[in-house]
Amino acid sequence: MTDVTLGMPQLPAPDYPAEVRARLEGDAREVIARYPDSRSALLPLLHLVQAEDGYVTRTGIRFCAEQLELTTAEVTAVATFYTMYRRRPSGEYQVGVCTNTLCAVMGGDAIFEALREHLRVANGETTEDGKVTLEHIECNAACDFAPVVMVNWEFFDNQTVESAKRLVDDLRAGRTVEPTRGAPLCTYKETARILAGFPDTRPGAVEATGGAGPASLVGLRLAKGEAAPGRVVSQRASDYPADEIPPGHPSSHDAPQQTSASDPDHPSGPVTEEGK
Questions:
Q1: Topology given in CATH for the domain delimited by 1-89
Q2: How confident is the model at residue 183 (pLDDT cuts 50, 70, 90)?
Q3: Which of 16, 54, 137, 240 falls 20 to 30 Å from 161 in CA-CA distance?
Q4: How far apart are CA 12 and CA 54, in angstroms?
Q5: Domain 93-185, what architecture?
Q6: Model-level pTM?
Q7: HSE (CB half, 13 Å, CA atoms) of 20?
Q8: pLDDT of the residue at 273
Q9: Alpha carbon of 218 to those of 156, 214, 215, 224, 227: distances in Å?
Q10: What is the residue extent of each domain of the chain?
């Protein structure tokens, strides 16, 4: 047998213990029943095996393939395409620092570099205690709260270098950490099971209202008429004839002016044939 990801001969993937397999098969049947085409269940099934192992193992790939009557190559192709599926053991908490443009310029780059030094890990690596895996992540649509750090896909908004250091220290020490918004924080395996489509029954999770924060919803409130529209301070300069722009108008400097008016120290008269 050849491993399709490494191109090297491999022994057949081991199976799950009987009791684990029986439990996973029951969960898999529930997931597959949601879809008219069984192979559509592959993404949640990958989350399911990731919830069991903490990453997508060769055993998990074999299990998904058997449940959906696919080849292991087909399952591996999907598991290696999406970054949400781990291909090696990782931490109990995935700490992602957004380093896309806005978060980066607001301090995301500095936070990421500070955490690399603080945790003594590189991008994608896990601390020795197995608690935290650090990674830079793509935009998570929370630009109003930049710079943003995410832990197992829960938001920690408006972070600084010092607050991010405290965050990872608390995670490693087992102290309670509360996301800025959304559901209570849970482990990576618990997160994977929720992503597989199983309900989060933890206290406070059902009542939690995640999603966008107030700053992101201003436009929606305006559209619904729930907030007063913005006040028009003054007309645009283009609404006036060039010679009637009121003095002091915010755009009056855009109006055509004689050179002597725009630069009194270097007045210039009209261009003549002689001056060309």
A1: Arc Repressor Mutant, subunit A (1.10.10)
A2: confident
A3: 54
A4: 20
A5: 3-Layer(aba) Sandwich (3.40)
A6: 0.69
A7: 12
A8: 58
A9: 20, 7, 6, 10, 8
A10: 1-89, 93-185
